[in-house]
Predict the structure.
Amino acid sequence: MCFSATASFVVGGSLIVMGAVTIKRAGQRRELAFAAIPLLFGIQQLIEGLLWLSFQYDAAQLKTLTTYLFTMFSHVIWPIYVPFAVGLLETVPWRCKVMWFFRFIGVVVAIQLLLLIMLKPLTAVADHHIVYVSPKLYDWPMMLLYITATCLVSIFSSHKLIRTFGILALLLFALAYWFYTAAFFSVWCFFAAILSLIIYFHVNRAQS
């Protein structure tokens, strides 16, 4: 996360354990993708923990590798993964159709951001927070579409806890940008990782 290697490893390890439990609790195959979100967030936090260590030990190759891995998670995987995982849980016909709209946006956003990551310079800088630096990677038109794919899709779910996850993720995205403008993606991903615990409660309630 954005604050320290230790915190990233603690949060990441906790989320991986929680994710494994959540996956085990999933009763249907269509729930597995959604149930795996905490585990994936845990892996992402461990990657950022390694990035912190690369600054501490001046490990240039590790820094480059973890910078690209984290950014692939945050900018490419999540815009595609979240709308597909949420959509798999939906059974209301009109909501299912709406989910395809969000999936399309997610794929478009992920492809565009992937091209920017591959074609433009990308680096990470650390002070009190980690900042991922790349030209045009955070342009607001693309970020609005990103938010649509990763947050607003959950608000259209028929499941109360999933809607709660989407609303809180959206609010925390705004909060992270307001207070941590330069490092907001790292901070927001940390907040979203904590929010992914809501997924455990949703799966647990579904199996109760």
